[in-house]
Amino acid sequence: MPLENLDPQDRDLLYELFALGLLEPDQMAEVRRLLESGDPETIAGMRKASLLTSSLAYIAPEAKPPAALRRRLMLASGMKERGMGWAWILGLAATCIVLITITFNMNQDVQRRESQIVELRAQLDSSQKLVAQAKDLYDFLRQPSTLNVKFGDGQPTPPRGQVFINRERGVLLFAGNLPAMPQGKIFEMWFVPKGGGAPIPAGLFRGENGQGIHFQPGAVNPASIAAIAVTLEPEAGSATPTMPILIAAPVQAE
């Protein structure tokens, strides 16, 4: 069937197939002849087809299907290999567009799944770190050499909790009834040495809903510490405690 006798929609499909380089040589020549003759409808249709096919390049690798593949697609669509003129070309074009759409959707699905896998791996890593920290904490608390100091009992509504001191591993603080932490402030723990020396900074921590947990790793000598103290300081911390002292847990080393 001559190109001029096709419906507009069929002509659009042929222009797209021409732009993809999928027409037979004689059919390519016919479209090229109309272009060279300056046929306005053909020129307008090719401009539209060029825009569409150029956008497809961003969603699928550029590739010209081999003749055997084109033949299989043509036969699968129910068209004869030869003698059907433009009809089989329309079927092939429709098949190609369907395949491109399926490929695009599959790529989108693969990207979503890869994103989900990355997120799950991050969650797993975080969970594994929490499990490792819990094991370390359990091991720290069960050591016979870990000294336990309670504070805040017997007072109306003070911060209360416990301090665990291990000579080789450090100091662990559990505190409750902490005051609200104003914006720009943070809690700081201190080692108050025996003999009246200056308190030694022992790390910063935050409190939520009146609860606070802080671990200061490293070797420590309980016999040299008179008390574990906590104050409220600027976010950068302080070199000396800012009054008032919120927690003062006396340490009595055995």
Describe this structure in words.
- The protein has helices spanning 8-20, 25-36, 40-56, 67-76, 86-142, and strands spanning 147-151, 160-166, 170-176, 185-193, 200-205, 207-208, 211-217, 225-234, 247-250.
- It is α+β, with helices and mostly antiparallel strands.
- It folds into two domains: 3-106, no CATH class; 147-250, Immunoglobulin-like (Sandwich), CATH 2.60.40.
- Strands 1-2-3-7-6 form a five-stranded antiparallel sheet, with no helix packed on it. A four-stranded antiparallel sheet has the order 5-4-8-9, with no helix packed on it.
- The longest helix is centred in the middle third of the chain and has 57 residues, at 86-142.
- Residues 58-62 and 76-84 have low confidence and may be disordered.
Brief characterization of the structure:
The protein is an alpha+beta fold.
Overall mean confidence score, pLDDT = 78
Structural class: alpha+beta
User: Percent range for helical residues?
Assistant: 40-55%
Sheet-strand content, in percent, reads 15-25%
Number of domains: 2
Low-confidence stretches: 58-62, 76-84
Shape: rod-shaped
Count of alpha and pi helical runs: 5
- In whole angstroms, how far apart are the ends? 105 Å
What Rg, in angstroms, do the CA atoms define? 39 Å
Count of beta strands = 9
User: What is the string of SSEs from the N terminus onward?
Assistant: HHHHHEEEEEEEEE
Major sheet = 5 strands, antiparallel
Strand order of the largest sheet: 1-2-3-7-6
